[in-house]
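Reminder: ligand-aware prediction takes two inputs, not one.
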Amino acid sequence: MSATIEFTPKDFKSSLKPIWCPGCGDFGVVTAIYKALAAIGRPSHEIAFISGIGCSSRIPGYTTAYGFNTIHGRALPIAQGVKSANPDLLVLAAGGDGDGFSIGGNHVGHAIRRNMDITYIVMDNQIYGLTKGQLSPTSDQGRVTVSSQHGSMETPVNPLRYVLGYGCKFVAQGTPADMNGLAKIIEEGIRFPGFSFINVQSPCVTYGRPQDQVKAQREKMQSLEELGHDPANQLKAYDLAEDYGNKLYTGIFYKDPNPGTSMDRLIKQRVQELNGKGAPKSDILSRFLPK
Ligand SMILES: Cc1ncc(C[n+]2csc(CCOP(=O)(O)OP(=O)(O)O)c2C)c(N)n1
Ligand code: SF4
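Here is what comes back for the chain with thiamine diphosphate:
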């Protein structure tokens, strides 16, 4: 680790020009990530950024971290593989609401259960952006899209309650309408020693609705901190999360005050114990983990 080097957000911006639609909320998310990484102060070669497939999943390419734009819905299994192979890497995972809660929904619960020290950022625009505006699992009931001409008849997923229900130890929400707040939340998520989930209300300007855009969000957003919410209060967090889709709370819903040891650390400890006992070199983990 190079703790003495000072970084600026620009150090984490790659030379690749984003091809997102002008005004897409994801521009704000990547800018907040640059700021958070500068505050964390680790060099790009110690960071791995894993995504699925979607407009939002292009995000690793716009950073200077090692990146892998993987398979639709599979950011988390791959991120967990990376983290268990090298627990010393700072691992970020990201994708859209479709990627995370539709095709990849099953992985979210198991990633939470395993509790690897990974920060998972979902850019929740309540639509499939890349494939041109179909219903996503977080779309409202009644929403008319190219795949729901008569209005959606499905009950939407509440991502905040979903992850809290699985026992996620760090749950937050932000928006590019409050860039500094979002950067701070991402920084806190990275500093949290376990799996952290950050839902970002990142509007799609092309297929989204006027009431979901950044301008409308500015009117609507309410800081949990200003409301006096105690992030150690899990039951209250669950209560507040119920308002997903109606209110726009920003900040930390829940942060476990006793986070325990993350699974990547437990694996590392176990491998060190096995190495100390002269375990055979064929042990797959001991071949891949740093000594
Ligand atoms: C296995 C598989 N199924 C379906 C697709 C098609 N597909 C690509 S992106 C996407 C959804 C994109 O929506 P979301 O994940 O919410 O991200 P966004 O584009 O809105 O950022 C789908 C269905 C795919 N690439 N691979
Ligand atoms: S289609 Fe929507 S989500 Fe995709 S880049 Fe354009 S504005 Fe962003």
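Residues 53-56, 72, 95-99, 103, 123, 125, 127-131, 136 surround thiamine diphosphate (ligand 1) (CB under 6 Å). The chain has a mean pLDDT of 95. We will return to this case in the review session.
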